[in-house]
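Go through this one:
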Amino acid sequence: MKSVIVTIGDEILLGQILDTNSRFMAQELTRLGVDTIEMLSIPDEHDAIVHALSDSLAKADAVFITGGLGPTKDDITKQALADFFHTSLVVNPQAQDWLQEFFKDRPERLNACNQTQVFLPANCVPLRNLKGTACGMWFEYEGKVVVSLPGVPFETEYLFPAEVLPRLKAKFTDLRLQYKVVTVYDIPEADLAMRLAEFEKTLPSHLGLAYLPSVGYVRLRLTAKEEAVERLPSVYTALLHALKGLSFTEGEEENFEEHIAQCLRQSGQTIACAESCTGGNIAHLITAVPGSSAYFLGGIVSYANEVKINVLGVNLQDLQTHGAVSEPVARQMAEGARRVTGADWAVATTGIAGPDGGTAEKPVGTVWIAVAGPKSTKAKKFLFSHTRERNIGRASATALRWLAEEISPTK
């Protein structure tokens, strides 16, 4: 089954907002076994919508549209869809009931603009949106499917799994696309590609390997389509053999912050952080996980040596003898964060992010990371890149990965 994703909005084309809906839907479709062959972003124009829909249906079994369903005059997707399907906008009784329900506790906010949300193309199946006033819409056309959803990300992220995916599973019962994921750490994408060059030459038709690089790791996705699905297990085993000797994890697991959250919720333990070169980025990543207040006690951004000494208790002589970017300082920063906050675990970073400040002995990209726990404190030295942003990102990712390993119940 092939699909096309279309996002509507001048704000996307102007670069004012980031299109996260396409990524979210494509990920969900891939898990289901749907092959997304194209993504389009088009303006809020009637003819552009009609043309995109016509062109997409010529090449795909399903088209997923987001955007242009608001209550204002510039939201024209519904009218364009009605014109494409040669029908009209009519009051939909279900949509009317849902709108009344949505505003039952605040009737004063149900105004004339919101009332226009009950007008839908006559041939659509409305999809109930519990997160907003705009219904989703499901159309069937010559054996194919068109789905239109609101452009607001959290509304799409509710409607797609709740209303769309179950209908797709019921209609398309023989979805022939499967994939497996491996995450490889501490190797650049180009070096990994060189290592896997011979493996890739052996890949059969309809089975491909994609490289998805991120800060500190490369995710490999092995995707099988159609008849190649039966060969996926054996090819995946060959991939794991080709990666022998590298650090990697199998499966599309949660990120390190989510793994840390899961472990700490189960154990009832807490964490803190002391950051120098990462400047609070680790604390930001940890607290981006909902509910992190249950286990994250706080962080100290000890950029200056005075803060390392006066707040974290780092020894002045160690700073003078070894420098701020050193094993003794990293260890004392982590231990100081545990002591100051009372946390069970603490992670610390101290390094030279760049672009200046490096020496022959400690070049830009040198970072010491320490993890302090109930039983011991450990520290490791890393050498990342020459780019400040990458050094901050890789140091943060590496620190969280190591912390996740240390607090894991299987450790």
Residues 388-407 form the longest helix (20 residues). The chain has a mean pLDDT of 93.
